[in-house]
Amino acid sequence: MRFLLGILASMLLLMAAMTGCGPEGAVPTDNPPVSQELNIAVFEGGYGSGFWEALIAKFEEDNPGVKINMQISPEIGDVIRPQIAAGNVPDLLALAINDQTGVVLSLIKDNCLLDITDVFDSPQYDSGAALRGKITAGFLESANCAPYGDGKIYLAPQNAGPMGLVYNKTLFEDNQWDIPMTWDDFFALGDRAKEQGIALFTYPGIYPEYMESILWPAIASAVGPEDFAKLQSYDVGIWGDPRVLALLGQFAKIGSGGYLLAGTAALDHAMSQTEHMHNKALFIPNGIWMETEMRDAARAEGYAFALAPPPVMKEGDTRYVMSSFEQLSIPKAARNPELARLFLRYFYTDEVLKMYADMCNAVIPTVNATSLIEGLVSDGVYSMFGAYDEPGADPLIVGFDAPPDGALIRWSDEVFYSLSGLMNGSLSVQECSARIAAAAAQLSA
Question: Considering the entire predicted model, what is its pTM?
Answer without folding.
Answer: 0.78
